[in-house]
Structure formats: structure tokens, C-alpha cells
Amino acid sequence: MTVRDxxxxxxxPRTSFGVHACKSQGVLRALRLAxxxxxxxxxxxxxxxxxxxxIGPVASVSMDHNTFIPSEITVAPGTTVTWVNNEAMxxxxxxxxxxxxxxxxAKDATFSFTFTTAGDYDYLCSxxxxxxxxxxxxxxxx
Length: 142
Description:
Blueprint: H1 6-11, H2 19-41, H3 44-47, E1 58-64, E2 67-69, E3 72-75, E4 79-85, E5 110-115, E6 119-124, E7 132-137
Parallel strand pairs: 1-4, 3-7
Antiparallel strand pairs: 1-2, 4-5, 6-7
């Protein structure tokens, strides 16, 4: 075997040790990664919330003008209530009996809780204690 000048290998595209081979390997690696990430991103199980498979009844309460609207809501067991802060002022949703508690909700932020047991659930905003509401959970409610 004869050893040639190293510039021969770098300059000759027909050799497997040239610059072109390194570039094409890098391009192939980038292409494989792009295909993998595209496949993973389009997989439904990664894009959906795991809890959304068995969606039950839903209800919504908004927070506007330092008020829960509606201030009282009646729902059936299994209903998920979502609170939405519609104003720039931050709010929270807190059950004084410690059944549920949101973090501080900025404008357009939401908090959801699923009520599984019948009963009356009073709640308030811990930042503005005069903001009060009630969820009444009873079988047969819609």
C-alpha cells in the first residue's frame, strides 16, 4: 500500500475519507433527526392531555370586576369546573376546607377542578377575600 499526500484524500471526492463524506454524514444525521422530531410531534398521545380522554360534563366560571360570574353554580358529580381570570388583576380560587386551591392566576389563566362528591363547596379569592362563590354538586344537575 502506498501512502499518498493527505491533500489527495481531502481534494478527491471519490475517496471515502474526504470532506464531502463528512458533510453528507452530517446532512444525513440532521435529516434523520428532523424526521424523528416530526414523527414525535405529530403523535396524538404527545399532543393531548392524558386526562382529556374521558371528558365528563364541564362548566365555567369567569373572574371579572372582582367577582366570580356566576357566583353560584349547580353541577352534577363528575363535572369539571374551569375558572378563567378575565381581568388584569391576579386572582386565586381557594376552598377554605382545603379541597382545592389554585395558584395565582394572571390575566387569561385558568384553573380546573373536577367535583366528584355531592355537596356544597364555598370558595373565595385569597387575594380579594370579598370575592366569594359556591359550587353546588348534586346528582341529576345539568
